[in-house]
Amino acid sequence: MIAYILRSLAQGALVLLAVAFIAFSMFRFVGDPVANMVGQEATLQDRQELRERLGLERPFPVQFAIFVGNAVQGDFGVSYRQARPVSALMVERLPATLELAILSALFATVIGVGFGVYAAIRRDGFLANVVMTVSLVGVSLPTFLIGIGLIYVFAVELRWLPSFGRGETVRIGWWTTGLLTESGLKSLVLPVLTLGFFQLTLIMRLVRSEMLEVMRADFIRFARARGIPERTIEFRHALRNTLIPVVTIAGLQLGSIIAFAIVTETVFQWPGLGSLFVQAVQFADVPVMAAYLVFVAFVFVVVNLLVDLTYVLLDPRLRGGKALAK
Amino acid sequence: MHNPSPSPTPATDLETEEKAAIDRQPSLLVRALDSDMMASFRRSKMTIVAAILTLAFFLLAIFADLVAPQNPFDPAQLDLFDSRLPPIWDEMGMLPYLLGTDEQGRDMFSAIAYGLRISLLVGFLGVFLAAGIGITLGLMAGYLGGVVDTVVMRIADVQLTFPAILIALLVDGVAKSALGGQLDEGTTLVVLVLAIGFSFWVQYARTVRGSVMVEKNKDYVAAAKLIGLPAPVIMARHVLPNVMGPVLVIATINLALAIITEATLSFLGSGMPETMPSLGTLIRIGNNYLFSGEWWIVAFPGIALAVLVLAINLLGDWLRDALNPKLR
């Protein structure tokens, strides 16, 4: 068990190192970092000083080691465009993205598992068919179209909900939250729906097909033979055995939550990391791009580790100290 | 009159022979129409509708300059007096602007037809590039094994942790800062194709590698090695044709993904500029007019994109099922 966790940690560290290398190469070789940092009127001497201060004269491996050392301490240099430390920019925008991503994941999982179970139990029911058809459309539609559609219906026509920004936020330490004010909560509704919709359809289809599979297994037949009520079979026996692949896929989907967060944040002008990255791409702000890349990799590695640990919670057979077969 | 062609008698013989041959064996077309795939195609009404829609979109894109009433890229043909007109079924609508006009007096129908052309062009080229990179690396990884295999598959693993749209945005950002600031339309198109190609190659590489690992132990590969053919020739001429089946299915489904990726990049402002808009650019422009009530500027490109992607996805699903012998 401990050996297994250690191995996952080592793999994660390797992935992070590889991504850090790409991020560093981008910073070092795309354009001239010095030319991007100093103004037009900087003298040659100024440039040379900055060059030395950044350590650009040293051998490449040493530069990379310094970059990794700084990155571990959260120092990613200074944004070309905003002339502020990248880490400060990211910390400022982190709460907005995390609140959006976690609420969407929660929304997608709860509703997705619920609808999936329903569609599996009432396989040929009218509502189940409607849900499945809608989900097919949901898988095909680009996220930004869903966002625009929701804005048109709920913000332009009905005028129920705001269409951009976070509304009023409350500051708790360095964290700003939109969860404590009415306008903050209202502002969250449309972005969360937009971001969660694709995940919802995916989880729902997965739960449905897995559950249909499990309901055919022998242990369900025996449970029925023992006279256990159908509800108990469905939720205690079948659903629990459905959840392992669902947790895997949901964890892997985190990558796409981040991807769609980029799009969703742009549609709703949400002041999060995704829109920061989109702006960085438009203005070729390489330090911000590099930092965002490392951030995404870090989130991915952490989530992967959590997914591995969840297996142990869900499947008692794995608690006996045996390493998980991959 | 003198007939310069060879004497007529053998020709007639040949014709009758050919005719007899055709009578004995049905032509390729007849056999294609009679195949299992065709049968499963005709069984599914959804697939037929999807195929007709896809074909219609392709034709609209190819013949855009014949079908469209104006060329939206030519400022001389635009009339500012005709700007922001609603669609034809609205009281304010007028001919020839079937779907209304945008703020520059651009006919929405023409803009969609031309935008479709760019969206499809970028989509197809992107898929070709992704398939090219993926097939080459997958072939090499599977056939050569060893270090090549490890390196290629590790890169693929790391890349899979990143969503395609993120990679595409990175490629775009890197290209922008490497080439310096704003790019012209042609360069943007190339950058978009590169971005899509580099984001989607992994799936091809993995699939091809898997099939190659099976194929390379077969007798025909051993025979080719025995007669002394070099490895690249064996890979390209002998192994490749046997692993192309699954690649076709991935390519179809990826075409829809590539079109969505291009549209998303353009929507985010990193894709095609307003002077040469794709569907995504049109949606971005239209989004600015949503609040002033001019819904048609965003709605029609949006619907076109959604229907196109849905139709291609349905075709891809059908192709996957039809080519999968397990599901028959």
TrEMBL record, chain A:
<feature type="transmembrane region" description="Helical">
    <location>
        <begin position="12"/>
        <end position="30"/>
    </location>
</feature>
<dbReference type="InterPro" id="IPR000515">
    <property type="entry name" value="MetI-like"/>
</dbReference>
<dbReference type="GO" id="GO:0055085">
    <property type="term" value="P:transmembrane transport"/>
</dbReference>
<feature type="domain" description="ABC transmembrane type-1">
    <location>
        <begin position="94"/>
        <end position="307"/>
    </location>
</feature>
<dbReference type="GO" id="GO:0005886">
    <property type="term" value="C:plasma membrane"/>
</dbReference>
<dbReference type="Pfam" id="PF00528">
    <property type="entry name" value="BPD_transp_1"/>
</dbReference>
<keyword id="KW-0812">Transmembrane</keyword>
<feature type="transmembrane region" description="Helical">
    <location>
        <begin position="243"/>
        <end position="270"/>
    </location>
</feature>
<feature type="transmembrane region" description="Helical">
    <location>
        <begin position="188"/>
        <end position="207"/>
    </location>
</feature>
<protein>
    <submittedName>
        <fullName>ABC transporter permease</fullName>
    </submittedName>
</protein>
<feature type="transmembrane region" description="Helical">
    <location>
        <begin position="290"/>
        <end position="314"/>
    </location>
</feature>
<comment type="similarity">
    <text>Belongs to the binding-protein-dependent transport system permease family.</text>
</comment>
<dbReference type="InterPro" id="IPR045621">
    <property type="entry name" value="BPD_transp_1_N"/>
</dbReference>
<keyword id="KW-1133">Transmembrane helix</keyword>
<keyword id="KW-1003">Cell membrane</keyword>
<keyword id="KW-0813">Transport</keyword>
<feature type="transmembrane region" description="Helical">
    <location>
        <begin position="133"/>
        <end position="155"/>
    </location>
</feature>
<feature type="transmembrane region" description="Helical">
    <location>
        <begin position="100"/>
        <end position="121"/>
    </location>
</feature>
<keyword id="KW-0472">Membrane</keyword>
<dbReference type="Pfam" id="PF19300">
    <property type="entry name" value="BPD_transp_1_N"/>
</dbReference>
<dbReference type="InterPro" id="IPR035906">
    <property type="entry name" value="MetI-like_sf"/>
</dbReference>
From TrEMBL, chain B:
<dbReference type="InterPro" id="IPR035906">
    <property type="entry name" value="MetI-like_sf"/>
</dbReference>
<feature type="transmembrane region" description="Helical">
    <location>
        <begin position="151"/>
        <end position="171"/>
    </location>
</feature>
<keyword id="KW-1003">Cell membrane</keyword>
<feature type="transmembrane region" description="Helical">
    <location>
        <begin position="183"/>
        <end position="202"/>
    </location>
</feature>
<keyword id="KW-0472">Membrane</keyword>
<protein>
    <submittedName>
        <fullName>ABC transporter permease</fullName>
    </submittedName>
</protein>
<keyword id="KW-0813">Transport</keyword>
<feature type="transmembrane region" description="Helical">
    <location>
        <begin position="222"/>
        <end position="240"/>
    </location>
</feature>
<dbReference type="InterPro" id="IPR000515">
    <property type="entry name" value="MetI-like"/>
</dbReference>
<feature type="transmembrane region" description="Helical">
    <location>
        <begin position="118"/>
        <end position="145"/>
    </location>
</feature>
<feature type="transmembrane region" description="Helical">
    <location>
        <begin position="46"/>
        <end position="68"/>
    </location>
</feature>
<dbReference type="Pfam" id="PF00528">
    <property type="entry name" value="BPD_transp_1"/>
</dbReference>
<feature type="transmembrane region" description="Helical">
    <location>
        <begin position="247"/>
        <end position="268"/>
    </location>
</feature>
<dbReference type="Pfam" id="PF12911">
    <property type="entry name" value="OppC_N"/>
</dbReference>
<keyword id="KW-0812">Transmembrane</keyword>
<dbReference type="GO" id="GO:0005886">
    <property type="term" value="C:plasma membrane"/>
</dbReference>
<feature type="domain" description="ABC transmembrane type-1">
    <location>
        <begin position="116"/>
        <end position="316"/>
    </location>
</feature>
<comment type="similarity">
    <text>Belongs to the binding-protein-dependent transport system permease family.</text>
</comment>
<feature type="region of interest" description="Disordered">
    <location>
        <begin position="1"/>
        <end position="20"/>
    </location>
</feature>
<dbReference type="InterPro" id="IPR025966">
    <property type="entry name" value="OppC_N"/>
</dbReference>
<dbReference type="GO" id="GO:0055085">
    <property type="term" value="P:transmembrane transport"/>
</dbReference>
<keyword id="KW-1133">Transmembrane helix</keyword>
